[in-house]
Design brief:
The chain is α/β, with parallel strands linked by helices. Helix content is 37%, strand content 13%. The protein has helices at residues 29-38, 50-58, 85-98, 117-129, 145-153, 169-172, 183-197, 209-218, 239-242, 260-277, and strands spanning 42-46, 63-66, 103-107, 135-139, 158-163, 201-205, 223-226, 234-237. Residues 1-21 have a biased composition (Low complexity).
């Protein structure tokens, strides 16, 4: 694979040579497909703002998801359900503007696509035009095939989402593992329906690892796991979970790679103490006449 065609997230960071100094191209869905064919894994993280997007782009995360998970990670909602298109579009635009090498996927929020394929296409077009997204993601099963087909025929890449689908949490009885026993056949049928309709990848959330492995082996397109075991082609986490910004008990599938909650708490406490004690601002933080 040449420098010009290599996806941004593939391989180890290159040495500081004249060749590696050339700007890398943005990750495309064709790169992800080739990685699936070669058996190469890739990482995806959520992002909702400029600085997180810049950092993850620098870290060579090839795919960023501006998820409706902004509901309970940005806006302070209890669930993802209240999130609106108008709330998400500015976040998508911030991420696409700040991550020049990442492929940015925008979630279609609850109620913005379930009405009809035409409604879904209209919403997807807004995310592409106003948010400058590179792809959209939607949840569902086999019933979403006509919707995916219409969106992809319009030239908009679609990522599917099967297994536990947060927008249907009330119908599913809460946050429960999906795809156990005979339900594994339904999971596979839903994923295959997304593939057949033209989706370029499928997220598999909160399903037994063997069921996710079965889907991954059956599909030609990449699978992205979250709580779906190690055999998916890629993995995704909410970045505040991954980096330990959100405190409290984390889902079983989360691995915390840092303690940003503790670091930020300590910094805020130190700042407060300096202000209260009169040591900030000091002379070096002040202007002379």
């Amino acid at each position: 694979m040449t420098e010009e065609t290599a996806p941004y997230g593939s391989g180890a960071p290159a040495a500081a040579t004249a060749s590696s100094a050339r700007p890398r191209r943005r990750t495309r869905i064709t790169h992800l497909q080739r990685m699936k064919e070669r058996g190469e894994r890739w990482a995806m993280l959520t992002a909702y703002d400029q600085y997180a997007a810049e950092i993850f782009n620098e870290a060579r995360i090839p795919v960023l998801l501006v998820g409706d998970s902004a509901g309970n990670n940005v806006f302070g909602y209890e669930t993802t359900l209240p999130v609106t298109v108008d709330e998400l579009i500015p976040l998508v635009r911030a991420v696409t503007s700040s991550a020049p090498q990442a492929l940015v996927v925008a979630d279609l929020p609850f109620g913005s696509y379930q009405g009809s394929p035409e409604q879904a296409l209209g919403t997807a077009v807004r995310f592409m035009k106003e948010g400058r997204a590179h792809a959209v993601k939607l949840e569902g099963g086999t019933e979403m095939a006509p919707t995916v087909r219409l969106i992809t025929q319009a030239g908009i890449p679609v990522m599917g989402h099967v297994g536990f689908t947060p927008q249907s949490e009330h119908a599913l009885g809460g946050y429960r593992v999906q795809g156990r026993a005979e339900a594994g056949d339904e999971l596979l049928a839903a994923a295959q329906a997304f593939e057949d309709a033209g989706a370029f990848s499928v997220v598999i959330e909160m399903v037994p690892a063997p069921a996710a492995a079965r889907v991954t082996q059956a599909l030609r397109i990449p699978t992205v796991g979250i709580g779906a075991g190690p055999d998916c082609d890629a993995q995704v986490l909410v970045w505040q979970d991954m980096a330990g910004l959100r405190s409290g008990k984390a889902p079983r599938f989360v691995k915390r790679y840092a303690d940003l909650h503790g670091a930020l708490l300590g910094a805020a406490q130190a700042y407060r103490a300096d202000v209260e004690g009169g040591t900030f601002p000091a002379t070096e933080h002040s202007f002379e006449s």
